[in-house]
Amino acid sequence: MSDGDDGLDPESIEVELFVRAMQLRHGYDFSGYAPASLKRRVRQLALRLESGSISALTGRLLHEPTLLPQLLEGLSVPVSDMFRDPAVFRVLREQVLPVLASYPHINIWQAGCANGEEVYSLAILLEEAGLYARSRIYATDLSAGALQRAEEGIYSTREARQWSRNYQAAGGKHSLADYYSARYDLLKLDRRLRRNVTFAQHNLVSDKVFCEAQLVLCRNVLIYFSNPLQDRCLQLFGESLVRGGFLCLGMRESIDAASSARHFKSIDAGLRLYQRNPDAIATMRPPAP
User: Fold this and answer.
1) Which one-letter DSSP state was computed for residue 160?
2) What is the crossing angle of helices 54-63 and 35-48, to 10°?
3) What CA–CA distance (Å, rounded) separates 92 from 114?
4) Residues 223, 34: Cα–Cα separation, whole Å
5) Spatial CB neighbours of 34, under 8 Å, sequence gap ≥ 6
6) Does residue 285 sit in helix, strand or coil?
7) How far apart are CA 288 and CA 212, in angstroms?
8) Could you give phi then psi for residue 187, rounded to 5 degrees?
9) Bridging pattern class, strands 186-189 and 154-156
10) Lower Cβ count inside 10 Å, N or C end of the chain?
11) Hey, what domains does the chain have and what are their CATH numbers?
12) How many angstroms separate the CA atoms of 110 and 233, rounded?
């Protein structure tokens, strides 16, 4: 079939075969990812791994099992900053944490935690609110490489100045430098910020509810998913949240077009902060134990 026909272009067919091979060979389903973003990432993977073409990369996927971590790393989106979008962390500090303070124990699920910057931002918020001692942050991601970097808590000092500005804009009570030590061109976050964090691999595409939580954050992940997959994730988050629990999405994400939107009410539409709607409790499945 020529490129002028109504069928898929050759590269799109290559991507489709790559996705199918990934599912059959390793059990990871990327078919629900937004097509343009997925094609771009697979193309970049083929180039980075010097495979020559997407078809050649698919062949390597099938016959080189040790390549899987690099494939997952390239297909995930490990991009974040500490206190990214400071207004979001300010509203978490001022409106959400006072509500969570009423619970004897606080569970937070950070889905798609990338390299961990937002996880440590949450830990700092909880520490400054006097809540960290009775909190547990479950930080999950598809990429084992990203999780390893997150658990190490070591980052480049070139980010420190912007992160400090973000922290202050988010209502920081001290100096961000109080929470890390710097040496040469690296900074290492204080180990006390990791004491109540559990890092774990989790696939939003296929895995079930990870934990019962009072707050779920999944920021700048859903924008890479198709509408049905976004809806699936929102249903998952709704099942995870306790009655009246909070959901925080990325600034470019919205629940408006999803059928699962009925499970949530908006707290701050501009900052993408929502709360599980008590009126919809009966229509949702209970969280997994």
Assistant:
1) H
2) 70
3) 20
4) 8
5) 223, 224, 225, 226
6) coil
7) 7
8) -125, 145
9) antiparallel
10) C
11) 10-75 (no CATH), 86-154+166-172+191-283 (3.40.50.150)
12) 13
pTM beyond cutoff 0.90: no
Rounded CA-CA distance 108/247 in Å is 10
With tokens 């939107």, the residue in question is: 261
In angstroms, the CA 248 to CA 220 distance is 10
140 bridge partner residues = 111, 200
Token representation of residue 239: 């099942």
Phi and psi at residue 50, in whole multiples of 5°? 50, 50
The encoded tokens of residue 68 equal: 């899987």
Q: With H, G, I as helix, E, B as strand and everything else as coil, classify residue 189.
A: strand
Written in H, E and C, the secondary structure of 33-66 is: ECHHHHHHHHHHHHHHCCCCCHHHHHHHHHHCHH
Residues 73-89: b if buried by 16+ CB within 10 A, e if exposed = bbbbbbebbbbbbbebb
Tens of pLDDT, residue by residue, the chain (289 residues): 445 555 678 899 999 999 999 888 887 888 878 788 889 889 999 998 999 899 999 999 999 988 988 888 888 766 678 999 999 999 999 999 999 999 999 999 999 998 999 999 999 999 999 999 999 999 999 888 889 999 999 999 998 999 999 999 999 999 999 999 999 899 999 999 999 999 999 988 888 888 999 999 999 888 888 888 888 899 999 999 999 999 999 888 888 878 888 889 999 989 999 999 876 544 444 333 3
What tokens does 33 get?
A: 């990812």
